[in-house]
Specification:
The complex is a heterodimer. By secondary structure, chain A is α+β, with helices and mostly antiparallel strands. Chain A has three helices and six strands; from the N terminus they run βαββββαβα. In chain A, helix 1 runs antiparallel to helix 2. The longest helix of chain A has 12 residues. Chain A is elongated, with a radius of gyration of 17 Å. By secondary structure, chain B is mainly alpha-helical. Chain B has 14 helices and no strands. In chain B, helix 4 runs antiparallel to helix 6. The model of chain B has no long low-confidence stretch (mean pLDDT 95). Classes of the chains: A alpha+beta, B mainly alpha. Chains A and B meet through helix 1, strand 2 and strand 3 of A and helix 13 of B.
């Protein structure tokens, strides 16, 4: 079992979701986060005071998958989020020790999907 | 003779109507997604700035100057000749400039209503040019036809007390045309956008209701019985329509919503607008109860079937509600309420209904063609729609370099 954490551009969420659904990966958690990468943000100006860089708004996806779903998941995220420009984001893959479905108390791979 | 009570009421009413535009900004602003909230507020607010100037420079002249024809001409350019004495053909008891500034607020809110149709996808620069052209070539002529001296719809006897035709049908049909030509927003099918702030919608609807007393009761142009009648029927129609929309949802969807109730109240206000000075309170309640049914069908049944994306239902509420109001005026108008008006169908004068129908048809025909022409011209010269990436990022950041809400400080 793996835990996939992806940081993507907020405006790419729709496309990534679509790609994931197409690969039959339906169980995802989405949150809004701030992050600092190499990319400069969209310029913001408040009463003449310019603000760029700094912390940028990103979307963080968390997806727990069984091993045979790992590559399709990564491919779907890349396909949906990639523009080729700085700021497209990152995907982290972690080993997942345990997974429990609260309703049934099932454990392991069966509880993921 | 200037009457101080009349003048005071018209000035207060002008301020009330001005407040409707920021009210509308919140009504619409709450319905869009977070990333576009400021763009809608900005579009409404800049209209207050741009059209206020437009109006005193030449908008008022085009709409109300006494030349007979397509519009009023330029003889009152820069308020030349529009002074502090009454101009009896429009309002005999208030300074001419008081009438002018009251009318200015109508000219401001009308183009703002259209924003609901193309919200979340129009380029700000193109929007400005579109709005100024639309005010000049659609609002001003139509205003002249219905309310100006020598206007031909005024001459055939069409009744429009406070702007059902000039404001609501006009803006509503322009909304449908722009929604059709600009096309649907991206990703609509996979993800129907939820309103980002419903409390704003309610705040906006409440401000609209409040300001509408100036809109309708102020259109009596005096502090008199007619103003009181307009005030009372306005309140009754809004209340009946809000209630009726809530009941309709309860019946059809299982639960009444605040979004629906607020929308219903606004639809009621739209519908009573042309009738406010011509009908009594029972017809006003009937107008209110029925308008929600028509608008509900327009936004919940017809819109999804036809697939056009009138984002915030400017057509579904203002045009549909406005048409019903204009026709209802032809049904329920009574000389007992306003001797200067006419009797409607239910008071023995079927001809009035046909006159109302003609005024509606002419408005729809002219406005849809003129709006289409202006849209195509602006699109050809500047490009009206933002790029796909800008639309996905949102108009606040891409058109204005600011955002409405922070995540963390």
């Amino acid at each position: 079992m793996k835990l996939v954490i992806a940081i993507i551009q907020p405006y790419k969420l729709e496309e990534v979701k679509e790609e994931l659904y197409r690969a039959e990966i339906n169980l995802i958690t989405v949150s809004e986060v701030l992050g600092h990468g190499r990319q400069k943000g969209v310029t913001e100006v408040y009463r003449g005071a310019k603000e760029t860089g700094n912390l940028l708004r990103k979307i963080r996806l968390e997806i727990a998958v069984n091993d045979d779903f790992l590559e399709p998941t990564i491919k779907a995220i890349v396909k949906g989020a990639k523009t080729g420009e700085t700021g497209d984001g990152k995907i982290f893959v972690l080993d997942l020790k345990e997974c429990v479905r609260i309703r049934t108390e099932e454990r392991g791979g069966i509880a993921i999907g | 003779m200037i009457n101080s009570g009349d003048t005071a009421w018209v000035l207060v009413s002008s301020a009330l109507v001005l407040l409707m535009t920021p009210g509308l900004a919140f009504f619409y602003g709450g319905m869009v997604r977070r990333k576009n909230a400021l763009s809608v507020l900005m579009q409404c607010f800049i209209i207050m700035c741009v059209l206020s100037i437009h109006w005193v420079l030449f908008g008022y002249s085009l709409s109300f100057a006494p030349e007979r024809g397509f519009w009023g001409g330029f003889s009152w350019f820069g308020l030349n000749g529009v002074g502090l004495e009454p101009y009896a053909d429009y309002a005999a008891t208030i300074p001419h400039q008081a009438f002018m500034i009251f009318q200015a607020m109508f000219a401001i809110i009308t183009p703002a209503l259209i924003i609901g149709a193309f919200a979340e996808r129009m380029k700000f620069s193109a929007f400005l040019i579109f709005t100024v052209l639309w005010a000049t070539f659609v609002y001003d002529p139509l205003c002249h036809w219905v309310w100006g001296i020598g206007g031909f719809l005024r001459n055939i006897g069409a009744l429009d007390f406070a702007g059902g035709t000039v404001v609501h049908i006009n803006a509503g049909i322009a909304a449908l045309v722009t929604a059709l030509v600009i096309g649907r927003r991206k990703n609509l099918d996979s993800n129907i956008p939820a309103p980002h702030n419903l409390p704003f919608v309610v705040l906006g609807a409440a401000l609209l209701w409040f300001g509408w007393f100036g809109f309708n009761a102020g259109s009596a142009l005096g502090a008199n019985g007619l103003a009181v009648n307009a005030f009372v029927v306005t309140n009754a129609a809004a209340a009946a329509a809000g209630l009726s929309w809530a009941l309709l949802e309860w019946l059809c969807n299982g639960k009444p919503t605040i979004f629906g109730t607020a929308s219903g109240a606004v639809a009621g206000l739209v519908a009573i607008t042309p009738a406010a000075g011509f009908v009594s309170v029972i017809p006003a309640i009937i107008i209110g109860l029925l308008v929600s049914i028509f608008c509900f069908i327009a936004v919940a049944v017809i819109k999804p079937r036809l697939g056009y994306d009138d984002s915030l239902d400017a057509f579904g509420v203002h045009c549909v509600g406005g048409i019903w109001g204009a026709l209802a005026t032809g049904l329920f108008a009574s000389k007992a309420v306003n001797p200067a008006g006419a009797d409607g169908l239910f008071f023995g004068n079927p001809k009035q209904f046909l006159i109302q129908l003609a005024a509606v048809a002419i408005t729809i025909a002219y406005t849809s063609l003129a709006t289409l022409a202006i849209y195509k011209l602006v699109d050809l010269l500047f490009g009206i729609r933002v790029s796909e990436k800008e639309e996905l990022i949102g108009l606040d950041l891409t058109q204005h370099h600011e955002r409405a809400y922070t995540v963390l400080e």
